[in-house]
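tmp note - Lnb N-terminal periplasmic domain-containing protein
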Amino acid sequence: MVQLQSHAGDALAGHHIAWYVYVLRTLLALIVLGACAWGAMALAYQCPGPAVVRYAVIALWVVLGVAAIVALLRVRAGALGAPGATLRGWPLAFLIAAVLLIAWWQTLRPSNDRDWAPDVAQLLDPHWNGSQVTLGNVRDFEWRTETDFTPRWETRHYDLDKLVSADLALSYWMGPAIAHTLVSFGFSDGQRVVFSIEIRKKRGQSFSAVGGFFKDFEATLVAADERDILRVRSNVRGEDVHLYRLNIPAEQLRKVFIGYLERARDLQRTPEWYNTLTSNCTTIVFELARIIAPGLPLDYRLLLSGYFAEYAYDQGGLTPGFTYEQLQTRGDFVKRALAAGDSPDFSTLIRQGVPGDDPKVTP
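out:
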C-alpha cells in the first residue's frame, strides 16, 4: 500500500514537472515568435545589399525561428518523425543568430549627412543671447502642390521679451486617433514661428509609421512660417487641422521656447533616430510641458496623438471657459485657410473665431 502511494506521488510530481516544462517551453516559443517577427521587420528595413540578398537573409532568419519554435513545442522526442536530438540545436542556433542580429542592429547610427528631401534639407540653427534669438534655416516654402514648390530658407530674429502666446496645432492625416503635433509661438510685433518635430526623409523616401520603429528615419526639428507649415497641411495635403490657444503663463512661455532651441541644438550635435512611439512630434511637447508642470501624468493620449488636445484640456492647458467640443469646433480652420490662400494675413484670417486667439470670441 505504501509502495502504491509512493508510485502515485511520484507520478503526480512527474506530471507537475511535465506541466511546468510545457509552460516554460510555450513561453520561450512565444518569445522566439516575437523576436522572429521583430528581426524580420528590422532586416526588411535595414539589411544592406540588393533586394535578393535581403530576402534571402530574411528567409534564413524566419526558417531558424520556425525551427526553434517547433523544437520548443515538441511533446516528446521523435514526435515529428525526427529524432529529438535533431531538433535540440535549433533554439541554440536561433539564439546565436539573435545575438548577432542585435549586435549588428547596435552598429546602425543616425546621421546628419545624407541626401535629404528638400523640405528637410536644412537643420535649424539656433543662437540666443538673453532675450535675443536668431534662427537660421527657418522654412518659408511656397507650396503649390506637394511636389511643386519654391524652397526658401531664411534667417529670422526674435525678441523673447515680446513673446506673448503659444498655439497647439493638430493636423489629422490618418483618422481621428493620429495627428501631427505642432506648436506656434506668437510675438507682440506680429511675428510667428512654428516648431515641428518631423521625420527627416531621404530624397525620394516616403513616410512609414512602421519604418519609424526600425531606424528608417532620423528626427529633425523644423522651424517654419505658418504660411508654409500650416498651409501645406490644410490647403495642399487636404488634412484636417485644428488650432488651440495654450493656457501657458507668460513667464513660462520663454522656458518652452528655449526648450525647443535646446532640442534643435542637441540634434545638430548628436543626430537621433525618429521613433514612432517614443521620440515623435507629441512626446517632445509632453517633455517640454513637464518643464513647467513636472507632475503631468502619463496617458494613452500621448500615444494616440489625435487626442492630445483633449489631454491638454483635461490638464487645464487650453483656453478656459469653453467646453472641449467648443474649442475643437472653433479651432477647425481649414475653410478659413482655403479662403485665405497665400494671403499675407494668413495667420490672422485662420484665427478668426478661435477662442483665446480672437478677442471677439467669449465663452
